[in-house]
Amino acid sequence: MNTGTFHCRQTGLYLFALTLYVDPSDEAFPINMYLNNIVVARPYTGASDATVASSETAVATARRGDELRIKFATTEATTVRAKTRFSAVLIQKLQKVS
C-alpha cells in the first residue's frame, strides 16, 4: 500500500523527488513534501484546462527513522492521479549527522 510516507532506514544524504500530475481544473493544486514535519519542497500546479505536471527535487540529510511525507497543502485538494510519483534515493551513508 502506498501511504505517501517514506521512513529512512539509514542515516545519510538523500535525494527526494516528487512528480505531480493533476487533471484539468479551475483550481491550483498545492502539495508539500515534509521531512519530520518541516517543508523541504513545494511542487505546485496552477489552474489549467489540460492535464499538467509539476516536479520538485530536494537533497537533505536524514537520520535513520526520519519520516518523509507527502501531504496536501490545503484541505480542498483531495485526489492525485495514478501517475504521480515519489522517489527517495540514498546518495551517501553517513556515520553521524550534526
Topology:
Layout: E1 5-7, E2 12-22, E3 29-35, E4 38-41, E5 44-45, E6 52-62, E7 67-72, E8 85-93
Antiparallel strand pairs: 1-7, 2-6, 2-8, 3-4, 3-5, 3-7
Structure description:
The chain contains no helices and eight strands. By secondary structure, the protein is mostly beta strands. The strands form two sheets. Strands 1, 3, 4, 5 and 7 form a five-stranded antiparallel sheet that branches.
Can you give keywords for this protein?
98 residues; mainly beta; 5-stranded antiparallel β-sheet; 3-stranded antiparallel β-sheet; 8 strands
Shape: elongated
> N-to-C SSE series?
EEEEEEEE
On the 0 to 100 scale, the average pLDDT is: 80
Protein structure class: mainly beta
**Oligomeric organization of the protein chains:** single chain
Low-confidence stretches: none
Number of continuous helical runs: 0
- The radius of gyration over CA amounts to 14 Å
Distance between the termini: 33 Å
- State the helicity in percent bands: under 10%
Strand content: over 45%
Short account of what is shown:
This protein has 98 residues and is mostly beta strands. It has strands at 5-7, 12-22, 29-35, 38-41, 44-45, 52-62, 67-72, 85-93. Strands 1, 3, 4, 5 and 7 form a 5-stranded antiparallel β-sheet that branches.
